[in-house]
């Protein structure tokens, strides 16, 4: 007989209500089991107390009022049929034994429930409190306050005296959270990561509570170790963690309805640069700007739309949308750049024409590619502790390392509260050492970007190699604890090192809080590309497919100037490049910083043109041909350091009569630009709709059916109408 079966019969054994065979079996088990003998003694002592209480004389005579006595007698006079069940028969004939058994049952249940309830309650509250803490981001939990109160009250909030002794109160606005001073340890970098970790742990727990050991620092999907303590969560705590998981969702950003309705939208930081107006050609015939090969705005928008939100209007930069697509420009064989132009009626601007300008850089041969001296600077603060952040960074760097040449060098620095050197510059042929350093990166603490940048540039300067591509690669979500003074110091240092030949490229990650403004500014000052990585596929495109362009700069300070003929063009408007505009005199001022272009890269710019009517067109008078516009490109070659300038004329006869006769690349560029103008709320896009953009894009998608980006763009345009706007 086992202990469970024996304990079930102990009460009947004490009351001598077992048959002889069963009583002998129980006695035999009691002789061999100390635990059951102890339980028998408890039952026997409890029954003794009950017998004494029942045998004690009544201290006060029973007194009944006349009214109460009359009611009792009246009830006794009413005869009702009696239905006697097995249990009722036992309680009717053995009232003393039934009372004793009930008392034993109650005492046993109390002894079992009280310790479990206390432990369960403490752990449950610890789960909620630890998952929600993140004090450095308390402004994010405003939409979470009602849920905090509900969960804490629902899952056994302790009494006031007990709370004062064992728990610490934390107040978020009008809601009070309770946390255990013992189990509240290592804080996750943000609330979302904490919820992901605890919800994931609860979902992965075994059904058997005795085996449900959950370690707070388990790296389930890219999350690094946060706490070295393990917690055994009882059943109610599992339910609580599961409830948090159900309310907050899986490991991704909130859906569009949840984010908008709950007011829990991520914290984004973008800078609005306005929208270019139409310019009268007679007053200002020159349009000058620095080129931009960045594509971060488009990838950010794609990432937000996959999460169910349109980007904020200020997040959309039209030129970065346009430059995210390939327009099949042929690279020059000998010159550094070649200029392409195309002119046709605009598909969206009524009565307007569109001028597309493309600049394609020369593709360097393998023997021309310079060795790369790279310094990886990786943000490992708490806000990076998520699979779509630090997990994606690790994958991107592994792809890059696998495709480096044997003459390239790599160093790895991580920064959180402080900067730490993980690997000094090492030959790329030692891939195992480099990958080991990348895998050692762990997230914690705050974001000391200033110390990280200082350490990275110091290391890059020590390893500087003449004739090589010396570059710092920053990978971050841009969430930094910096004041205005620190930002200015960083930008000054980046500009100074740029002049010495050390450039800076920036790669953003993250689907929650994100500082686009800071990352774009760092890339601009460092003469590097600014790209947003939202997937492993995008990382592969940047670090594998476009690796030659990423690591081999062919020209710096690249500027474009377009001179329009006021006799033909009444007014013009550039689409995008608002934050790249330059003065007319800056074009030939070689001290003015502008953009850079890598091997084989291209840049595209679009202008809307309002052409003048031709009063002499009906007369048969031979006129000398007049240029519609002149496009000039000025740049400084990286290999020779020499400044060069090239130009191309645009003639009116080059204008195709109808949009259908324009190339597919022209129609694609104008459609992409219109989509961006709609997303950013441009006043010049009023009257256009997403459906009209989709109608123009559908035949292009059929022509370019092998281009996955074009198919993806069509899906985004079709979904935009029903997608809410992020704030």
Describe the structure.
By secondary structure, this protein is α+β, with helices and mostly antiparallel strands. The chain has three domains: 111-251, no CATH class; 279-365 and 555-613 and 659-720, no CATH class; 371-551, von Willebrand factor, type A domain (Rossmann fold). It is built from 23 helices and 23 strands. The longest helix has 38 residues, at 95-132. It is elongated and about 130 Å long.
Task: Break the fold down into its secondary structure elements and pairings.
Layout: H1 3-14, H2 20-32, H3 34-55, H4 66-77, H5 86-93, H6 95-132, H7 145-154, H8 160-166, E1 168-172, E2 175-179, H9 191-204, E3 213-215, E4 230-232, H10 235-248, H11 256-262, E5 268-269, E6 279-280, E7 286-290, H12 296-306, H13 318-322, E8 337-345, E9 353-361, E10 372-379, H14 387-402, E11 409-415, E12 419-427, H15 431-439, H16 449-462, E13 469-476, H17 484-499, E14 502-508, E15 514-515, H18 516-525, E16 530-532, H19 536-545, H20 547-551, E17 553-564, E18 569-575, E19 581-582, E20 595-598, E21 602-611, E22 629-637, E23 643-650, H21 664-679, H22 690-703, H23 708-720
Parallel strand pairs: 5-15, 10-11, 10-13, 13-14, 14-16
Antiparallel strand pairs: 1-2, 3-4, 6-18, 7-17, 7-19, 8-9, 9-21, 11-12, 17-20, 17-22, 18-21, 22-23
The biggest sheet amounts to: 6 strands, antiparallel
Tell the overall outline.
elongated
Return Rg in Å: 38 Å
Number of helices: 23
> Level of helix content?
40-55%
Separation of termini? 68 Å
Fraction of residues in β-strands: 15-25%
Task: State the secondary-structure class.
Answer: alpha+beta
Mean pLDDT metric: 77
């Amino acid at each position: 007989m086992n202990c469970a079966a024996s304990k079930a019969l102990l009460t009947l054994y004490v009351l001598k209500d077992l048959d002889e065979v069963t009583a002998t079996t129980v006695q035999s088990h009691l002789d061999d089991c100390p635990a059951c003998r102890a339980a028998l003694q408890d039952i026997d002592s409890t029954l003794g107390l009950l017998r004494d209480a029942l045998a004690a004389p009544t201290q006060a005579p029973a007194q009944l009022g006349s009214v109460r006595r009359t009611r009792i007698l009246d009830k006794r006079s009413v005869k009702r049929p009696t239905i006697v069940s097995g249990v009722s028969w036992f309680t009717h004939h053995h009232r003393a034994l039934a009372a004793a058994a009930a008392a034993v049952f109650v005492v046993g249940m109390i002894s079992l429930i009280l310790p479990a309830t206390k432990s369960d309650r403490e752990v449950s509250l610890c789960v909620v409190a630890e998952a929600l803490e993140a004090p450095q981001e308390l402004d994010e939990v405003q939409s979470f306050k009602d849920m905090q109160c509900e969960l804490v009250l629902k899952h056994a909030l302790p009494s006031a005296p007990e709370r004062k002794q064992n728990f610490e109160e934390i107040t978020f606005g009008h809601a009070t959270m309770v946390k255990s001073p013992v189990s509240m340890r290592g804080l996750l970098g943000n609330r979302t990561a904490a919820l992901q970790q605890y919800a994931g742990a609860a979902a992965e727990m075994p059904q058997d509570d005795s085996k449900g050991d959950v370690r707070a620092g388990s790296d389930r999907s890219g999350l690094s170790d946060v706490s070295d303590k393990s917690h055994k969560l009882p059943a109610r705590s599992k339910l609580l963690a599961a409830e948090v998981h159900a309310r907050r969702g899986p490991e991704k950003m909130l859906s569009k309805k949840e984010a908008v309705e709950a007011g829990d939208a991520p914290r984004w930081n973008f800078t609005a640069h306005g929208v270019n107006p139409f310019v009268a050609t007679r007053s200002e015939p020159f349009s000058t700007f620095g080129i931009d090969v960045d594509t971060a705005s488009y990838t950010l928008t794609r990432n937000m739309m996959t999460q169910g939100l349109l980007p904020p209007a200020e997040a959309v930069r039209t030129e970065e949308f346009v430059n995210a697509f390939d327009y099949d420009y042929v690279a020059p064989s000998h010159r550094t750049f070649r200029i392409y132009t195309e002119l046709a009626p605009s598909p969206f601007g009524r009565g307007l024409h569109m001028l597309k300008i493309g600049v394609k850089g020369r593709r360097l041969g393998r023997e021309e590619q310079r060795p790369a001296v790279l310094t990886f600077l990786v943000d490992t603060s708490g806000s990076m502790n998520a699979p779509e952040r630090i997990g994606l960074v690790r994958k991107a760097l592994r792809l890059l390392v696998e495709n480096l040449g044997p003459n390239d060098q790599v160093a790895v620095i991580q920064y959180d509260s402080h900067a730490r050197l993980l690997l000094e510059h090492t030959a790329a042929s030692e891939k195992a050492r480099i990958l080991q350093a990348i895998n050692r990166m762990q997230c914690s603490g705050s974001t000391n970007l200033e110390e990280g940048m200082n350490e990275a540039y110091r290391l890059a300067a020590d390893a500087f190699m003449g004739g090589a591509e010396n570059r710092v690669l920053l990978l971050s979500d841009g969430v930094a604890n910096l004041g205005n003074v620190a930002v200015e110091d960083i930008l000054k240092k980046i500009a100074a090192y740029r002049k010495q030949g050390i450039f800076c490229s920036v790669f953003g990650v993250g689907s929650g809080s994100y500082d686009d403004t800071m990352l774009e500014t760092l890339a601009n000052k460092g003469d590097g590309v600014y790209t947003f990585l939202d997937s492993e596929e995008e990382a592969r495109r940047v670090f594998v497919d476009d690796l030659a362009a990423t690591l081999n700069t062919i020209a710096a300070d690249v500027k474009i100037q377009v001179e329009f003929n006021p006799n033909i063009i009444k007014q013009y408007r550039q689409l995008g490049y608002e934050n790249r505009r330059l003065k007319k005199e800056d074009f030939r001022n070689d001290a003015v910083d502008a953009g850079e272009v890598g091997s084989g890269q291209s840049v595209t710019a679009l202008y809307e043109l309002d052409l003048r009517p031709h009063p002499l067109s009906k007369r048969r008078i031979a006129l000398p041909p007049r240029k519609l516009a002149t496009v000039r490109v000025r740049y400084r070659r990286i290999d020779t350091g020499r400044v060069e300038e090239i130009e191309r004329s645009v003639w009116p006869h080059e204008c195709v009569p109808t949009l259908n006769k324009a190339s597919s690349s022209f129609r694609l560029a104008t459609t992409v630009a219109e989509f961006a103008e709609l997303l950013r709320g441009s006043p010049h896009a009023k009257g256009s709709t997403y459906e009209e953009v989709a109608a123009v894009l559908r035949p292009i998608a059929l022509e370019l059916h092998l281009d996955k980006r074009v198919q993806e763009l069509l899906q985004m345009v079709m979904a935009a109408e029903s997608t809410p706007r992020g704030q």
